[in-house]
Specification:
heterodimer; A: 444 residues; alpha/beta; six-stranded mixed beta sheet; 14 helices; 31% strand; globular; B: 525 residues; alpha+beta; six-stranded antiparallel beta sheet; 17 strands; rod-shaped
Chain lengths: 444, 525
């Protein structure tokens, strides 16, 4: 009873702007067909607002660069990596903290966590890096985290930026192990962004590490692209406006949470819990929950879900909360169902499903089932294009075209490179990329 | 002799070398062993240090987790909150005091995917709780509560959980520890370097694969294992291994090499010196021997030389006594005279030589006419030269009186002419000339005989040396003639030179001596 009162109260309010993050919770369908089970997307969108204060007053960052200096990096690769690292560090100010860790067979801290005041010395240390040896990627990330912890607090943005060109061969090397590490780091408010260089790295490992910690994953095909990638990544780091985000969706009676699309979280009974590590200023991150709704009577309106979000606001340096309650209606009119559908939410939801399909096709191809993979990709392509046209989402249409191209690149030496592009795109999609700038090729 | 020498010197030398080598080798080996033990104990100490740090961390973690499990965990959401916040905790489980699993729920629809995964992963604990309860006995007791660690194996390797048995309600709260997070924590505790130069230390997991390596980034498969240290419970199946390359023991190697180098060079120099000394002594002694031999042969030779003219003298005297014919008689007596003179010369030479050896050969200068003295000496040879058909040419122009030793002049000239007669007769020509240049007088005797090679020319002045015996067949002489010439010449403060004759044939001897005019006596001579 208490519950219903709460819900009613919340229904009447519009989306609440709580400090730095605007929380938008919406249902893909405002109304479902009466008399039968229906499904809908529940999208919880979080948009970081523009920084009120000037750029220099942004939240200080605590960044660890973890660089691969194994033998395969020697030559142009390590040279470009150093240039990219230099450029990135140049953007830091004296309030920021930077550390540099390099790894080959062993892990060495080249620049222990220090304020970015004496940049000359930091840059000198980076210059002295020489490439040789194996790849202790896990150790590198662990040491990077250790450096971060020296100055960790929630008022700073804590980020590890990992660069690798090869396969981890010292220490834990499975994507699952690295994913677990990422998840564990996220609990400490640390996210890991991963940059894969060239055609020889393990993209699944890099993907898991980034995905589980809510970092980004980038694919730099040539060393020359590194500078741009580091730049983009650093750009993101410097605009983080909120951290330690907890999203809770409490489904109403008669609503069954089926699965989360793209993001990872806990579904237990009616409760869904999704943690996010950060929100960037002027950037939207979202989670989509697919929910099954019990049949309703035409004209009814029921509660769909209660959404509550807590986070740490870096601008106000305080914890903040926001919440929203969602309802759903029922109608006998099919056209009305269509009319009342929320195009943005639908597009977002379908993007996530298409991304899952793309991953599935990739796994088929890994198992050698090339023809089956091709079929899945072509179907996915049609799926995307159709939906894109239906819901007016350009990003979906582009992704459809990309899936078609993916289908043609499943064989031969081009597959290894193609696979890395696919993984990069998947991670990008999960973080809402399609809705922002379309496919990566366009955003480059 | 030589063999004896070699044995006497070589034997001890080789024995010394052998013993020395063995000593150095065993010393080096001892040194290496000591060093090895040293390095191994350093490695051991380092690893134990790391192990202790890890152990301490575990003790801290245990305290931390004990406090964490103090909460009553009223409901499921409380139990779920813990892994959402604690980096090392993956899952929470609660066992009722009757062994029933309270959380996660037995009903799959009430579990999260992660909770289901945990139950699958830890299935062996639930299937045989006896094993899990055994941990109870190994656990520690704090304030009435029992707690401890439990390990089991699953696909990736060692799995770990922490459990606490509450004395209050008999419930067990367990915390499934995230393996990756745990390892990352441990990596914080290992050093970045090892004190052993170029050494490396590895943390190895249950399956034997390397979790982490620090120190040198070289491949350790080529290196030597210094030691292994197992981690303490609950991580006993993980271990530390310490490696070092062979060159880490290079100190001993360097020492050995330096020592060997030093030893060998000393030995070498010493041996060399010894050999050289022995060689010198050998030469000296053999020289003495050779000299002695030469003297013996000289004496033999001289005796033989004396005997020949003596025999002739006796023979021709005999013939003369029996000779009726006055002319023939005169001839016989001529021969006797020649042989007498020859004998005279020979005796003079020998006596001079002996005196010279004693250091008793002294120059006595008087004003004499050198040319006259030479001319007289030439006359004494006329008979002999005629017989051998040697044409004599004289060019005596030393210019009057000079201060010189007449005996010396005579012996010099006599010996040179004697050599021409003995060795240069085939040239059938001899020229004796004198010349003056200031206070110096040069006496030259030249022939057109077979001449000398350069090698012979060098040795002819040495006593007892005769150029070659086959050239001088039938020649009488003991080989000291030129030696006498040289000694007289030296005592006069002069030089004697030997050159090929003009036209390249024969020999020319030039003797230069100090023989000033009496009126031009120079101070201090």
């Amino acid at each position: 009873m208490k519950y219903v009162v709460c819900l009613t109260g919340l229904i009447l309010t519009s989306p609440v702007i709580a400090d730095s993050v605007k929380v938008d919770a919406e249902s893909g369908h405002a109304a479902l067909l009466a008399g039968e089970k229906g499904t809908t997307f529940i999208k919880v969108g979080l948009t970081g607002k523009k920084w009120e204060r000037p750029q220099t007053d942004r939240a200080p960052v605590n960044v660890a660069l973890v660089l691969d200096k194994s033998g395969s990096m020697s030559g142009e690769k390590i040279r470009q990596a150093k240039i990219a690292a230099r450029q990135a560090i140049e953007r830091l100010t004296s309030d920021d903290i930077v550390s540099v860790v390099v790894y080959d067979t062993t892990v060495k801290v080249v620049v222990p966590a220090t304020k970015a005041t004496d940049k000359a010395t930091i840059l000198q240390q980076i210059d002295s890096i020489q490439a040789r040896g194996n790849t202790a990627l896990f150790g590198g990330v662990a040491k990077g985290a250790e450096e971060l912890r020296k100055f960790i607090n929630r008022e700073r943005v804590n980020r590890i930026i990992l660069l690798s060109d090869g396969l981890a061969n010292v220490g834990p090397k499975s994507p699952a192990a690295l994913g677990d590490l990422g998840k564990s780091l996220a609990k400490e408010n640390i996210s890991v962004s991963t940059i894969g260089l060239g055609g020889g790295y393990n993209e699944d490992l890099m993907y898991e590490l980034a995905n589980k910690s809510d970092g980004s994953h980038h694919f730099a095909e040539t060393p020359q692209e590194l500078a741009g990638v580091f730049d983009r990544e650093f750009g993101d780091v410097l605009t983080v406006i909120a951290q330690k985000i907890r999203i809770r969706i409490l489904c109403a009676e008669g609503v069954r949470p089926v699965r989360l699309l793209g993001r990872e979280g806990d579904i237990a009974g009616q409760e869904v819990f999704i943690p996010l590590t950060q929100i960037y200023s002027e950037d939207e991150q979202y989670v989509i929950l697919e929910a099954e709704v019990a049949p309703g009577l035409a004209g009814d309106r029921r509660g769909l879900a209660d959404v509550s979000v807590t986070y740490f606001d870096l601008e106000s340096q305080k914890e903040a909360t926001a919440g929203e309650a969602l309802t759903i209606a029922f109608t006998n009119s099919e056209p009305e169902v269509q009319e009342l559908a929320n195009a943005e939410v639908m597009a977002a939801g379908i993007s996530q499903i298409a991304t899952l399909n793309n991953r599935f096709a990739m796994k088929l191809r890994d198992e050698g089932k090339i023809n089956e993979a091709k079929v899945v990709l072509n179907d996915n392509s049609m799926f995307c294009v159709t939906a894109g046209n239906l819901w007016g989402d350009q990003g979906l249409i582009e992704y459809g075209a990309q899936n078609e191209a993916d289908a043609e690149n499943l064989e031969g030496p081009v597959w290894m490179i193609r696979r890395k592009s696919m993984v990069e795109q998947q991670q990008y999609n999960i973080r809402g990329g399609l809705q922002k700038t379309g496919t990566i090729q366009k955003s480059r | 002799m030589t063999i004896l020498f070699v044995l006497l010197v070589g034997g001890p030398l080789i024995t010394a070398i052998w013993f020395g080598l063995r000593m150095v080798d065993s010393q080096a080996r001892e040194e290496r062993q000591k060093q090895q033990q040293q390095i191994e104990s350093i490695a051991s100490a380092e690893m134990e240090n790391t192990r202790n740090r890890i152990n301490d961390r575990f003790a801290n973690l245990q305290r931390e987790l004990t406090i964490l499990t103090e909460t009553t965990l009223a409901d499921e959401s409380a139990a779920r909150e813990i892994p959402r916040n604690h980096p090392l905790v993956r899952q929470v489980f609660i066992l009722e005091n009757d062994g029933r699993l309270l959380f996660p729920s037995g009903d799959p629809s009430r579990r999260t995917a992660a909770e289901t995964e945990f139950l699958d992963r830890s299935a062996e604990i639930w299937s045989s709780q006896k094993q899990f309860y055994r941990s109870y006995d190994e656990g520690t007791r704090v304030a009435g509560n029992r707690m401890g660690w439990h390990t089991w194996y699953w696909s990736e390797g060692l799995q770990l959980l922490f459990w606490k048995l509450s004395a209050k309600n008999g419930r067990v709260i367990g915390l499934d520890i995230d393996r990756s997070a745990l390892l990352a924590t441990l990596l914080q505790l290992v050093p970045e370097n090892t004190t052993i130069p170029e050494g490396a230390v590895q943390l190895i997991n249950t399956g034997g694969t390397v979790f982490h390596q620090w120190g040198s980034n070289e491949d350790v498969t080529e290196q030597q294992l210094l030691g292994t240290v197992d981690l303490r419970p609950p991580l006993t199946s993980w271990k530390l291994m310490s490696f070092a390359p062979a060159s880490a023991f290079g100190v001993g190697e360097d020492l050995k090499q330096t020592a060997q180098l030093g030893f060998y060079s000393t030995l070498g120099i010493g041996g060399l010196l010894t050999i050289l000394a022995a060689l010198w002594f050998y030469r000296e002694s053999s020289k003495g021997m050779r000299e002695a031999e030469k003297r013996v042969s000289f004496v033999n030779h001289v005796s033989h030389e004396f005997r020949t003219p003596l025999t002739n003298i006796l023979l021709y005297t005999d013939l003369a006594q029996a000779e009726e014919d006055a002319g023939k008689l005169k001839d016989h007596l001529s021969v006797v005279e020649d042989e007498g003179r020859r004998l005279h010369r020979l005796v003079d030479n020998v006596l001079s030589f002996a005196r010279s050896e004693r250091g008793a050969l002294i120059v006595r200068k008087h004003p004499i006419d050198i040319d006259n003295a030479i001319s007289e000496e030439v006359d004494a040879f006329r008979q002999a030269f005629e017989e051998k058909e040697i044409e004599v040419e004289l060019q005596l122009q030393s210019g009057g009186t000079a201060l010189a030793d007449a005996e010396a002049i005579r012996e010099i000239t006599g010996n040179l002419l004697g050599n021409v007669e003995k060795y240069g007769a085939s040239g059938r020509w001899v020229r004796v000339s004198t010349d003056r240049d200031g206070s110096k007088v040069t006496i030259s005797v030249e022939d057109k005989g077979p001449g000398l090679t350069k090698k012979q020319a060098r040795r002819i002045f040495k006593p007892f040396y005769r150029a070659h015996d086959n050239v001088t067949e039938g020649a009488a002489g003991a080989g000291i003639g030129l030696s006498i010439v040289q000694r007289w010449v030296r005592l006069h403060g002069g030089t004697v030179r030997c050159r090929p004759g003009s036209e390249g044939r024969g020999i020319r001897f030039d003797v230069s001596i100090e023989a000033p005019h009496p009126s031009t006596r120079t101070r201090g001579k």
